[in-house]
Amino acid sequence: MTATEPVSEVVMAVASTTGFAAGNEIYIRDTSTEADSEWATVDKIVANTSIDLMEGLVTQKDSADVIWGSAQTFRVSLPGNVG
């Protein structure tokens, strides 16, 4: 990331878009407050300029934060007696 992006922003300024594509699920890691990290879906890519999101950011992000393009989520069912 190359700029600070406010809450609700859908256009994230980046130095490189290599490896990102529309429709990808990405993980935006907030390096200062891990709890502010979030998942997003890429709407479109503007080559080496921006990664545009389908929905706005939940928390502000800054240039120290990292976008992971090859991130994956997994859902695991737990037995009913596990708390």
Provide a descriptive summary of the structure in words.
The protein is mostly beta strands and 83 residues long. Helix content is 0%, strand content 29%. The chain has no helices and five strands.
Structural topology:
Layout: E1 11-13, E2 25-29, E3 38-46, E4 50-53, E5 66-68
Antiparallel strand pairs: 1-4, 2-3, 2-5, 3-4
Q: Would you report the number of β strands?
A: 5
What is the overall silhouette?
globular
Give start-end ranges of low-pLDDT stretches.
none
Q: Could you say which structural class the secondary elements and strand pairing correspond to?
A: mainly beta
Arrangement of strands in the largest sheet: 1-4-3-2-5
Rg, Å, rounded: 14 Å
Oligomer: single chain
Largest sheet: 5 strands, antiparallel
Distance between the termini: 38 Å
The percentage helix is under 10%
Beta strand %: 25-35%
Give the ordered list of helices and strands.
Answer: EEEEE
Put simply, the count of helices is 0
Average pLDDT metric? 92
State the main characteristics.
83 residues; mainly beta; five-stranded antiparallel sheet; 5 strands
Compact summary:
The chain is mainly beta and 83 residues long.
